[in-house]
Specification:
With about 200 residues, the chain is of the alpha+beta class. It is about 30% helix and about 25% strand. The protein has eight helices and ten strands.
């Protein structure tokens, strides 16, 4: 019998340390993104996180899926969550793959697919925005890679949900001048009337 579809909100996300343990030994780029990336930068969990997001290069999906053998993988896009067959690659327009823990019946991690290279990070909403990956990915003392805060906030600027506003307010005092300048330019290009511009 085909298992019932897992509800979209059935999240029991791993801590980033667990994800790093499972991905250790994979010599390809990946990093934690979203709110967890900011908290790895802060060095403390500033708020609860309902999910865990990471990015990998699109061409590396099969490699990372192989490191999660107990997962069932689902392509996410246009408000739909569709199961992927064994070894199946999502359509080109799909940029998210949710990982379902089959035994526990919950979602563990959201793998975002990016189109950069091992050396170059590319902003998926505007591919003309790109920087060396070494400048955009930091690593915690215990070896967890995470996206630089200015890039995380650029993604969050689009939505301005309560948690995004809280994350920005928490991060702003810690951003150095180059980080603020880069973020301000990028937000001004994408959202010219954005309320964060004055604060930056």
């Amino acid at each position: 019998m085909k298992p019932a579809a897992l509800p979209d909100d059935a999240w029991s996300a791993w801590h980033p340390q667990e994800l790093a343990r499972r991905f250790c030994g994979i010599a390809r780029p990946w990093c934690v993104v979203g709110g967890w990336a900011l908290d790895l930068w802060h060095g403390v969990e500033t708020r609860p996180h309902e999910d865990l997001e990471c990015t990998i290069l699109r061409d590396d999906l099969c490699l990372f899926c192989a490191a999660l053998p107990e997962m069932r993988f689902h392509a996410v896009g246009d408000g739909r969550v569709e199961p992927l067959g064994a070894g199946e690659v999502p359509a080109a327009g799909i940029a998210q793959v949710w990982c379902e823990d089959v035994a526990a019946r919950c979602w563990r991690v959201d793998m975002m697919l990016e189109d950069g290279t091992p050396d170059i990070w590319v902003y998926k909403r505007d591919p003309s925005v790109r920087r060396r990956r070494s400048e955009m990915v930091r690593v915690t003392e215990d070896g967890i890679p995470y996206l630089a805060p200015e890039a995380v906030l650029l993604f969050k600027a689009k939505y301005r949900r309560d948690k995004d506003e809280a994350d920005f307010a928490q991060a702003l005092p810690k951003l150095d001048i180059p980080q603020r300048q880069w973020l301000k330019v990028r937000i001004a290009e994408a959202h010219p009337d954005h309320g964060w511009l004055r604060a930056l």
